[in-house]
Amino acid sequence: MATVQHAVQDVYEPSLFGTYSKKIGMWLFLASDSLTFGALLFAYSYNRIAEPGWPTPFHKESIANATLMTACLLSSSLTMVLGVLAANRGDKAWTRNWLLATMFFGTAFTVLHAMEWTKLMGEGMLPWKNPWAATVPQFGGTFFTLTGMHMLHVTIGVIYLGVIAFRKKILPILLALWLVGWLVTPAGNFFHVYGIHVLLLGVIVSAIILFLKPKDYDPQDVEVAGLYWHFVDLVWMFIFPLVYLMSTKVV
Amino acid sequence: MHDVTAEHGESKLTYFWVWGGLLFLTAVEVILAYKQVLQPVRMLEVLLVLSVIKAALITLYFMHLKSEIRPMRWLLLISVSGCFFLMWVFFFPDANRIIHLGVK
Fold this sequence. Notes:
Chain A has helices at about 10, 20-50, 60-90, 90-120, 140-165, 170-185, 190-195, 195-210, 220-245. Chain A is mainly α. Chain A is built from nine helices and no strands. In chain A, about 75% of the residues lie in helices and about 0% in strands. Chain A has a single domain (about 20-245), classed as Cytochrome c oxidase, subunit III, four-helix bundle (Four Helix Bundle (Hemerythrin (Met), subunit A), Up-down Bundle). By secondary structure, chain B is mostly helical. Chain B folds into two domains: about 1-70; about 70-105. Helix content of chain B is about 75%, strand content about 0%. Chain B has three helices and no strands. In chain B, α1 packs antiparallel against α2 (about 40-60). The radius of gyration of chain B is 19 Å and the shape is flat. Chains A and B meet through α2, α3 and α9 of A and α1, α2 and α3 of B.
């Protein structure tokens, strides 16, 4: 009878990919998400090449802002990987500290990006028109879709890391951020009317997850969250040169 | 239980080097954009090459793809690259056609 008394790990064959299922699941999600961003980047690049009158509205200030945003994301990737290292060591305090630093850089990126959007909208740029080249309405559409999709991913990433680092404690923090964000943005601003409510949606979804399946997140969860975060950073490495540097206006 | 600690060999110093390299490549991209010594299509090619190098550094070191076993690495690399290659093959000749021949 000894032959049937296996431990669970002996019953299942080892994974073909040599790692745990959560990580394989995240890699598969990232592969599919890379195709979403790939399609958007291809659409932008196609239009950029095919349209000789493509506007170049990004002057020194915008490029400096986008460079700072890039530095924020790259630094957030460093803090994230240090967080994964701390989690692997079993150092919960430093894991939380590094995740907090990552969230800080991610939030800084989002705020800088929101300021850039607000400035462009103030200059008359909308998804269906731009003030620099009336014959190229697709500039606004492709720009806002691509960068908006990325900004959404960064925001989801910050919330995801918050859930991993603080569990239920993140819910009141997110609610406070939503309220403060809503109050400090001007009444007619896009982020006052629409953008900031992504946080409220994040609170609802996080609350459902945290209350339906409360758990103490382990090093694997930190590593899987890290994969998502680095992917968001990776995508920006293509958006920054294609969208900003290819439309630089040097006076 | 899978042991996460056993699989990543890189030290903290390696991650700082990768971070420095990524910042350096970003600076190169910004300088190229400001100098504008290249034509737009050539500029696009150079920026894309630099972006691919940055993406490779992030994937291999920060996402630890370097430490994954070979089937995992190749499956991801071939499937994603294959999809992008198909998009590139079908779409970009058309973008060039518009530049050289005009819309018909």
